[in-house]
């Protein structure tokens, strides 16, 4: 018998083990029941699993990764924020009369997202606020925003009427609006503000930093219907009101000056002119204006350029009012006194140019006083040459005649004159009678004020004080000459101009009016000077009186030889009555 190997005898049969394994039997049973998985089913199963994964990861992205961002966007859609406007400081005149003030107003705004019927709401708004319904509809339909202004600084009464309509998406902010009770009177000095409450011109601009105050801030949430959410205020900082100021302007005299200037300029048949009244003892400007005037309550109808006082901002060739500067330089040089005489031919020549007086005349012997009385170009030129042109150059510098005065008004003009090393004889002649040099009327007023104030030159200014704190403004002054004799002689000569010379219509009975006229030629853009067209002027004061008010009156682009002395007389006659000005003898 053949022997069977042990390993083969004892090893279980593989076929027998597979047939009897329960797991394999179960799988076989299930396989018998389920249909076989095809390739198509496998694709669908994978696609379904991918879709589930996409939704899962999207959910994680929205709820975890960008949750904060979407929450912030949702909050932003119901959040309103804006700056709150402080009450701007009041401007008072020297007597405490209100010149500019802030009154209660209401700013109306809209959230276009909440507007349900833009056309209907636009019609309703136009019916109360005025304007075109189409403009309001465009605002109410503004895309991609939750805040548009409907009407800034509306009247409170009008805003209350809009509130009563309960329009969707329309809201209101307590605000203020700038008002000017005296309209155009003094407006060029006072200035005006834009809708944001910022000073644009005049003292509103000059002192904007102290008048404007500090804006506040409001940030809060509103619910679905636009009502504030309890506890939804996120930030609320109160605005700090601005500081009041008192200025030197006298609104009553200002009104007088503006009316007198307007009437006088009409008489000399032109449209432009300026006037300025300053106290030579203090530098306080009581009145200042230039035609045309402006209305800060209706800037849309005010002429371009009307917002400035040209007597402060625009230099010009002063003409014969400048002869007083030359006369002062001559007197200080001691080359001539008021009664010193010299021969004055009808014309003189220098550097191929001729100099003559404004009126034809024969050669004559004049005293320095008569040279000023007759406003002789030839006479003052020769007298200044006799004294020496360096004295004139020194006077121009010492009296700061081409330098800004430092007045607290935006846009002050300076002046100009050639360096002395560039002067030829003709330049010296021309400057002697006010050509070839530019100054502002304010600079001439300051010079005449120095003569009236015994050689002390003040700083022209408007600010007097800040009433709330009691702070009083201080302004520098300077003694520019101590030659009392020259000052006295010049005042005497300026008095003669009014009593016996070209300025007789400026005189006021019972008072010692001193001053000087001017009929200044106007430089032409083509070179040389315009023919028969002049800038007229008069600058003067009342000597030996209880007042040191200095007044300048000018009219521009006037055809023919005329004067502004009558305008000066009208202004100063009113000042005498208003301030009860007395002569020294009456004290």
From TrEMBL:
Boundaries of each Penicillin-binding protein dimerisation domain copy?
84-226
Kindly state a single biological-process term from the GO annotations of this entry: cell wall organization
Q: Where is the composition biased (Basic and acidic residues)?
A: 1-12
Per the record, which residues fall in region Disordered? 1-20
Q: Where are the bilayer-spanning segments?
A: 43-66
- What is stated as this protein's family in its record? Belongs to the transpeptidase family.
Q: What is this protein called?
A: Penicillin-binding protein 2
Q: Which organism is it from?
A: Adlercreutzia muris
């Amino acid at each position: 018998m053949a022997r069977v190997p042990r390993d083969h005898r004892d090893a279980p049969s593989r076929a027998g083990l597979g047939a009897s394994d329960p797991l394999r039997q179960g799988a076989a049973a299930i396989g018998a029941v389920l249909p076989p998985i095809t390739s198509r089913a496998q694709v669908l199963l994978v696609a379904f699993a991918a879709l589930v994964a996409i939704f899962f990861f999207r959910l994680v992205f929205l709820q975890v990764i960008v949750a904060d961002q979407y929450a912030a966007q949702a909050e932003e859609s119901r959040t309103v924020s804006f700056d709150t406007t402080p009450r701007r400081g009041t401007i008072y005149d020297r007597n405490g009369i209100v010149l500019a003030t802030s009154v209660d107003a209401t700013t109306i705004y809209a959230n276009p997202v909440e507007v349900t019927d833009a056309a209907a709401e636009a019609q309703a708004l136009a019916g109360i606020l005025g304007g075109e319904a189409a403009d309001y509809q465009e605002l109410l339909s503004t895309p991609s925003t939750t805040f548009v202004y409907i009407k800034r600084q509306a009247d409170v009464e009008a805003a209350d009427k809009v509130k009563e309509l309960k329009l969707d998406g329309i809201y209101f902010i307590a605000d203020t609006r700038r008002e000017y009770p005296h309209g155009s009177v003094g407006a060029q000095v006072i200035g005006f503000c834009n809708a944001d409450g910022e000073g644009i011109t005049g003292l509103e601009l000059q002192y904007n930093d102290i008048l404007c105050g500090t804006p506040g801030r409001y940030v809060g949430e509103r619910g679905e219907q636009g009502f504030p959410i309890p506890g939804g205020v996120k930030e609320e900082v109160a605005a700090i009101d601005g500081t009041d100021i008192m200025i030197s302007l006298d609104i009553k005299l200002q009104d007088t000056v503006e009316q007198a200037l307007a009437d006088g300029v009409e008489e000399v048949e032109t449209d432009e002119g300026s006037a300025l009244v300053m106290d030579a003892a203090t530098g306080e400007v009581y009145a200042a204006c230039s035609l045309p005037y402006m209305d800060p309550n209706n800037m849309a109808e005010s002429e371009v350029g009307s917002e400035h006082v040209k007597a402060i901002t625009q230099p010009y060739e002063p003409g014969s009012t400048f002869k007083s500067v030359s006369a002062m330089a001559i007197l200080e040089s001691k080359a001539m006194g008021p009664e010193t005489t010299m021969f004055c031919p009808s014309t003189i020549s220098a550097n191929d140019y001729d100099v003559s007086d404004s009126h034809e005349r024969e050669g004559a012997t004049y005293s320095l006083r008569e040279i000023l009385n007759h406003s002789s170009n030839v006479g003052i030129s020769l007298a200044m040459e006799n004294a020496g042109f360096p004295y004139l150059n020194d006077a121009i510098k010492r009296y700061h005649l081409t330098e800004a005065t430092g007045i607290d008004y935006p846009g002050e003009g300076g002046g100009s004159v050639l360096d002395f090393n560039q002067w030829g004889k003709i330049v010296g002649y021309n400057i002697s009678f006010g050509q070839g040099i530019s100054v502002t009327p304010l600079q001439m007023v300051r010079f005449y004020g120095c003569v009236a104030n015994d050689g002390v030159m003040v700083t022209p200014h408007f600010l007097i004080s800040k009433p709330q704190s009691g702070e009083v403004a201080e302004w520098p002054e300077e003694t520019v000459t101590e030659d009392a004799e020259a000052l006295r002689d010049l005042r005497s000569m300026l008095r003669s101009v009014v009593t016996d010379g070209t300025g007789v219509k400026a005189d006021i009975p019972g008072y010692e009016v001193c001053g000087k006229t001017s009929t200044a030629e106007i430089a032409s853009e083509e070179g040389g000077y315009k023919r028969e067209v002049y800038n007229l002027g008069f600058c003067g004061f009342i000597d030996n009186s209880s007042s040191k008010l200095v007044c300048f009156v000018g009219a521009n682009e006037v055809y023919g030889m005329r004067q502004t002395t009558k305008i000066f007389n009208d202004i100063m006659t009113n000042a005498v009555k208003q301030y009860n000005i007395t002569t020294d003898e009456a004290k």
